Amino acid sequence: MPFKLFEVDKEIPDREKHIYVKDTDDPVEHIPKCNTKTIPGCMTERGCAFAGVKGVITGAVKDVVHVVHSPVGCTTYGCGSKRYPTSPDLPNGEKFPVENFNLKYIMGTDLKESDVVFGGMKKLRQSILEAAKEFPYVNAIYTYATCTTGLIGDDMEAVAKELSEEIGKDVITFNAPGFSGPTQSKGHHVGNLTLFNHLVGTKEPPETTPYDINLIGEYNIDGDLWVLKPYFEEMGINILSTFTGDCSHDEICWMHRAKLSLVRCQRSATYIAELIEEKYGVPYIKVDFFGPKYCAENLRALGKYFGKEAEAEKVIESRMKQIQPELDFYREKLEGKTVWVFSGGPKNWHIPQPLEEHLGMKTVAVSTMFEHEDGYEKIKERVGEGTVIIDDPNSLELEEIIEDYKPDIILSGIKEKYIAHKMGTPCMLIHSYENGPYMGFEGFINLARDIYASIYSPVWNMVEFKDEIREEE
Ligand code: SF4
To answer: Which label site among 1, 138, 205, 253 has the fewest CB atoms less than 10 Å from its CB?
Structure first.
């Protein structure tokens, strides 16, 4: 049975079920155990369900203010967002007055002991009214339950309903306290359901075309959306709504009017695509725009759907012509280098193959904090023999993986980056990116450039303790 117990996990043998080494002869159902509570004793890298809503789903909306109903800690945590830049353009032609408002502001109810004892609804009411007064130009107010308010049982929905009428704007409550699921994935689900139930179908778009799409699960990380958008425009396809990169509150309200939904981040946002299909009959397809091959394949699929095959070919041809010389350069430099991909969701199955196919890199390890069975099946399909696949790795395992598998580079998040650097291993951000965007044809060149710059940085030759680490091995 190709499951593996790391040395550091000797005292927590249950970890073995979460670590799988790819063996092609294995039955399909052999994948890491996942989407379960972190095993006590593990120093997990996971985020909470509240983080799943605010940090992933709603944090990218450009014209709303967030009120976190919590002691100040969760609000501070909710403030740290991914790099989701936003443009000031609103669908009605007006400009939103503050650039990147979504990255700059968050409000909280700052609950204290007496609120826990006597209830926090009064404070929530005050905070929402204050948010409406402080930011009169926002188009909605989103409020969030957290562990404390989930436990004391404040009726946030009632407050939101009452104030929505009083303020004259949508006030929406997201009920995903941190403890409500094993990972942030629970928050993604709650975020999808809440936005669907409260918003989709409540407004009509200013205009429609026969080529309107929803681009779902695209959060505009470091400008990804702004790379993809011109491809669609050149093909004559109109993005009616994004969910939720650089999107306005209203765009979510008219997602039911699209002719097709494309689902990019399939872990966090397939839920809403399914709901829209079920209720409004808008079909959806799963897409992937990481790397030239997947990008071309998916543009072709989109072209075929709308009868715009020639337009798709034109986009592909022009971009390949543009990137080929740089792609050749980076392939020469990165051929044979090994990589450990430690991303949150689908990047784990989207990235290994483009890295191998276009840059000649080999994936030796893949890990995620909140993937589900279907995601692990795809990861297993797309990595080579012997690749270790780890669910919810703990901090000590991170060190053992670096020592055992010696990746030339790790693509991960900020929490892991400095552990790796302390061990003398290049590590760059794949969640929020280093110098993105990384999506699309041009984005893949940015990714290759950042990998190249990290691996070839002269700093690794100056790390004094690196030799000591290697000697200890
Ligand atoms: S919601 Fe709970 S788990 Fe999440 S930051 Fe707040 S206290 Fe921590």
So the answer is: 1
